[in-house]
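subagent[fold] <- orchestrator: predict structure for attached chain, return C-alpha cells only, no commentary.
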Amino acid sequence: MQLAKNIYAFVSYTANDPRILKSTNSAEVDKELRFAGADSLNAGLSYETRQGLYAGILMHSLGAYPTNNTNTEFLSGYTTFDFKMRVNLSDNLILTGSLDNIFNQRYQLFPGYPDGGRVFQIGLNSTF
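subagent[fold] -> orchestrator:
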C-alpha cells in the first residue's frame, strides 16, 4: 500500500495448521505436522524513488512449531527486524546493502542449530 509519495507499507499473515490425518503411529493422528505449522507475520515500511533509491525496514515473526509429529517438543517462535537499501550509482551499477536481524535476536530453526545472529551484507551489481 502506498502511504504517501515514495512511502510504502505492507503486512502479510499466513495461518498454518497442517494436521496428520493418517499414520502408522496412532499417536500422530490429528497432530500438527513437524516443522510446518508455524504462523508467520511479515510487515514492512519502505521509501523508494523512481531514480532507484530504496530503503526499507522489514519485520518477520514466526510462531512456535513442533519438532516431532507427536507434538511433544516445540521450538519457540521469534521476531526479527531487517534493514535493506539500494542505490543506483549509474544506469548499470547498483549498490545494495542489508543489516539482517538488527537486534541480534537468538533463535533456532532446527533443534541444536542456532541462527547466525546479526548479518551485514554489502554488494555491487552491474549490468553490461
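orchestrator: received. Logging for downstream: The longest strand covers residues 78-90. The chain has one domain: 2-126.
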